[in-house]
Structures are given as C-alpha cells and as structure tokens.
Amino acid sequence: MDIEDMIVDLNDLTQDGVIECPYCHKGKTYTYSAKGKESSNCHICRRLVLWDFDQMKAYKAKAKKYVS
Ligand SMILES: [Zn+2]
Fold first, then answer.
1. Do 44 and 55 form a contact (C-beta atoms < 8 A)?
2. How many domains does the chain have?
3. What is the pTM of this model?
4. Among the four residues 12, 17, 34, 39, which has the most C-beta atoms within 10 Å?
5. What is the pLDDT of residues 6-46, one digit of tens each?
6. How far is the CA of 30 from the centre of ligand 1 (A)?
C-alpha cells in the first residue's frame, strides 16, 4: 500500500469527544465515533490507561502481562 494512503486528515472526521489521562490529565485521546474500550499507554506519562469510549472515561489500568 502506498504510504500516502495511510495519512488521515483528522479535520475531515467528526470529533465527538476527548478523554483525559487519569494520571497526568495532560495526555488526551480524541474520539471519532469510537465504541468499546481500548488499553494503551498515555503518550505523555507512559502509564497504562484503559480508555472507555462508551462511558467517555479513562481508568488507571494494570496488567500482569502484555499481549501483543
Ligand atoms: Zn498520562
């Protein structure tokens, strides 16, 4: 696939929410009709966060092991 095809202009999407990192409150996730949950590390403080798009909340998460 051409690398150009992988670039998305976020302004073309309808942003419907922002969730703050529960640790640092600086890291934010912007949602675009997202549903469900996602675990990922905050890009500011690097701590593991469970982002809940249904509740529009973020939780401090812990995992015994990482699955890739
Ligand atoms: Zn953070």
1. no
2. 1
3. 0.80
4. 34
5. 899 999 999 999 999 999 999 999 999 999 999 999 999 99
6. 14
Does the residue 5 lie in any domain?
A: no
Q: Is 35 part of any domain? A: yes
**Residue 3 counted as domain residue:** no
Core vs surface per residue 7-35: b (16+ CB within 10 A) or e? eeeeeeeeeeeebebbbeeebebebeebe
Does residue 28 lie in a domain region?
Answer: yes
Measured in Å, residue 51 CA sits from the centre of ligand 1 at 12
What lies within 8 Å, CB to CB, of 27 at 6+ separation is 20, 21, 42, 43, 44, 45, 49
Task: Report how far residue 35's alpha carbon sits from residue 17's, in angstroms, rounded to the nearest whole number.
Answer: 11
